[in-house]
Design brief:
Elements lengths: L1 H25 L20 H7 L6 H4 L4 E4 L3 H5 L2 E7 L4 E5 L4 H10 L8 E3 L2 E5 L4 E6 L5 H14 L9 E6 L5 E4 L6 H6 L6 E8 L9 E3 L4 E3 L6 E5 L13 E3 L7 E9 L20
Antiparallel strand pairs: 1-2, 2-3, 3-12, 4-5, 6-7, 7-14, 8-13, 9-12, 9-14, 10-11, 10-13
GO cellular component, one term: endoplasmic reticulum
Keywords: Dioxygenase, Iron, Metal-binding, Oxidoreductase, Signal, Vitamin C
Protein name: Prolyl 4-hydroxylase alpha subunit domain-containing protein
Length: 290
Amino acid sequence: MNQKIQCLLVIVVAVAGIGAKDSATQNGAPNESNGGEERVVTIRMDPYMDLCRGVYVPPPSLASSLYCWYDVRNAHSVISPSKVEALSNDPFVALFHEFVHDGEIAQLQALGTPHIKQSGATNDSWLPVFYENHQTYTLHDRDHPVVERLTKRIERRTGLSCDTAEDLKVIYNEVGAFKTAALDAIHKKEDAQRFAYAGDRLATMLFFLSDVTNGGYTIFPKLRVAIRPQKGTAAFWYNLKETGEGNVQMKYSICPLQDDQKWTAKKLIHTRGNELRQLCRPESAPKSEK
């Protein structure tokens, strides 16, 4: 019996010693037994990794506050309600499912045929040659009825005016294309002068015109939101705070495209004409200096 008690005491002392060593190491104190050579190394996982791989799982406290609904805010929506999925409540980020139809997507791509050069094998080499993995072209409402129809649909679904919005920008990507952190709000002097009449970029509507097998996610690292490209879906978010300042939380990145091709389109909505549509809350007013 005494031998068992002694063995237990030895085990307890050994475990206690190991625990003390680990805690000292975690607190940054060097271990005196080896001359203070041990140091604490903090490993911090890059938040981009899980978001770009599409494996990030939001905590239950956040996921439970998100929901989907049918938007019937106007007469047109009663006939064809919008399928809306909230990805973030504050700041607001949402998906409009089945926003663009296949026929409209084909027409938008056809309008850019003279401008886009897709990669392919050349005569002098068996390797594919990439002309450029990121190409864009813009379309005005007057260029084709489908462009005008999309603009009117944006106004109905978001409740915002597109009178001062920028032209629709269609974007074609090939393997390897990516985009580092960006905020659609105006921050360059030349852009501020260019859009002096229209004001700042209030909101963004991003259309996904093709499905993607691997990569190509649009992510908001600060919000822990990842959007997988899904043909026909549109993502919507606000770029500004209620004070009119650019919201740094809305910085987004586009993960590297690993295969296939990717087609998207973007509509940037400005503040001019939306003063009474996007009201400011009293608590968001700038604080006076005392």
